[in-house]
Amino acid sequence: MKLSRPRVEDAAVLDVTLNLFAYPAMLVAHRLGLFRQLAQGPRSLQALIETMQLARRPLEALLNTAAALGFVARANGVFSLTTLAEDYLLDTGPAYFGYFWDLMLDNGDTYAAPQLERAVRNNSSQAYGEQDIFRSHEQQLEQGRRFTRAMHSLSMGHASAWPRLIDLSNHRVFLDVGGGSGAHAIGAVSAWETLRAVIYDLPAICEMSGEFVVPYGLGARITSHAGDMWMDPFPSADLHFYSNIFHDWTPEKCKFLAAKSFDALPSGGRIVLHEVLYDDDKTGPFAAAAFSVVMLGWTEGEQYSGLELRSLLEQVGFRQTQVIPSAGHYSLVTGIKP
Ligand SMILES: C[S@@+](CC[C@H](N)C(=O)[O-])C[C@H]1O[C@@H](n2cnc3c(N)ncnc32)[C@H](O)[C@@H]1O
């Protein structure tokens, strides 16, 4: 055989392999309490070996991976948490993400290659043994609570960011459709004094939403309304908000929801969608493509582009539609009913 040199280097193909290990390693570090240990102050490797009762080799591999991903700083043999880890990986932080990682740890099947292959071949979700996840939550309350807590984990940081990017001063009632823990209702009413909010979700989830809202002292301004968005009417509101909802469903079902909101809103009412968006030509970003793969395992939905969601809102009658980039990988898509 003649030796021929590849035209490009192999980093991208090796990265696919390496990331199979690096990302779950952070879930393992989280489960072992590594970030909690470092919350007590900078620690040497030796001190961590002793307190965590782990051998040097695996512990250092976890720490160095955490350092490479920006969660831990290593200086002169001493490890400490970065701001990123303090804010997102400690349950005392403003936007603790750990419950989302717990959900991933509990449902490792959804990102294991055999299940992913089945999801791809059959175009069917795999979580909870291929059951409809939201119906399961109505029957398995602890499962519903863990999921709702995970969504709260994902959403609280964003809920403190997006409400400042859009003028809601003319609105009075914020309907958080599929609102779960009410994370976004908490963010919206905290930013806009004149707003009150209603969390609209399935009955079992509405019953637990108070657990999340009350600690913020917002029980008087945020109520819940149990209903099924496919068949029950929406309570009266002049602002409909959907976060991580459209990506759960097919384009036809998204259009149904947009039209239902259009019919329910008064003239001047607003719809806001909060999603991780594809670029309009779907060449990226990576986060939207990867999130679509997550949706394969959990739901019947996928990520959409800003162009797709704007056009969907316009098809049902909304005007003045716009896309507003928000925190991290998230954006808002909004429109007004004329
Ligand atoms: C992916 S979670 C999003 C939660 C929240 N909006 C957030 O971003 O944190 C989807 C939510 O939709 C709710 N949901 C699913 N089907 C529903 C239905 N038929 N009617 C009302 N809510 C529903 C679920 O219970 C869940 O709380």
Automatic annotation (TrEMBL):
Source taxon at top rank: Bacteria
All copies of domain O-methyltransferase C-terminal, residue ranges: 118-319
Protein name stated in the entry: Methyltransferase
Keywords attached to this entry: Methyltransferase, S-adenosyl-L-methionine, Transferase
UniProt cross-references to Gene3D superfamilies, sorted A to Z: Vaccinia Virus protein VP39, Winged helix-like DNA-binding domain superfamily/Winged helix DNA-binding domain
MF terms (GO), sorted A to Z: O-methyltransferase activity
Lineage, opening ranks: Bacteria, Pseudomonadati, Pseudomonadota, Gammaproteobacteria, Lysobacterales
Alphabetized PROSITE patterns for the sequence: SAM_OMT_II
GO biological process: methylation
